[in-house]
Input
Amino acid sequence: MKFNLNNEEYYCKYWKQYFEKILSNIGMEKTNEKTNVEIGHYNFASTIAYGFPHTYAKKRFVHLLYRGEPYYPKSILMTRKWLLDNTLKVYAFMDSGRKVLKNENGVGSKFVNVVSSVEDCFNHMNNQDYYVLQTEIDPLLHNGHKLDERVYLLVVKEDQKYSSYMFKEGHIKLAGFKFDKNDNSKGSFATNIKAPKPPNSKGQDFTIDINEFLKNEKNKNIWISRRLELMKKISSKFLPAVRENVKAYYKGKKEPKYIWHMYGLDILIDKEYNFYLCEFNGKPGVVYDDVMPKKITNINRKMCDRIALQFLGPWIINKNNSHQNDKTIIKLGEL
Output
């Protein structure tokens, strides 16, 4: 079967139907994210996969897993009540400059704020949610704009073996306005695709294919090596956490033989080319609209192809767990 990467209707309809037919033919039940899928779910029109139960990598989960690591910015996990009871600790943390406040459950730039005081924090918090208050790094700039890189991490469970892979494809997201360390507006700070942009501009104006970006990056080799080093470190802590969560969830129940999940990781880079984990995204999208450029969406879709052909294909067709070699996929670790 040949995959047409340029036909929206094809991807939203026929790709989905194709895999549902294959899986049903081998006795694999179609499930959805609410009942926890066995080989990811097939709603490729909106997501790539959502396989591991209770490992959604929310901001609190990521903070607790990586806090103290040199590649995770110094941070505090807190609720509004905790802040009121520990005001002096937060004041001391705030003394070293402005910080970034993130809502654990928030999606999009409106749930990320630049704060300069305890009062700022309090005003941006509600009484229910957890928040991560994080040190801001001195960012690397591209033509004066702050940036981050979206890197894709694939975690695969085969029987009781867990493996992680990184895709070389990815993209750079730029803030809509030039960076100013004295400006608290989200337009110059937030690199989220839906963050404020200049009037009449589109997301594609501030999104760059990583391969195109690296062609003009003077420190390309440093970038590539440090990104890979960081992703291996992230994976080494994430795989055991996934395994423990899956084991706990299926205790006393039949555990699926195969599970897979794609995560979109946002990586920050400072002026010295140090790489930092910003956050995990549990559902990196594969649709395009006014803010998600088609050229970036097609990068994601090509990765959908490779997940199916490199990983699901051998399981379904050969039953031997063998993976085809693909130079665009790098194995990070195994557990």
Remarks:
- Residues 8-68+140-334 form a domain with the D-amino Acid Aminotransferase; Chain A, domain 1 fold (CATH 3.30.470.20).
- Confidence is low (pLDDT under 50) at residues 1-15, 26-50, 315-325.
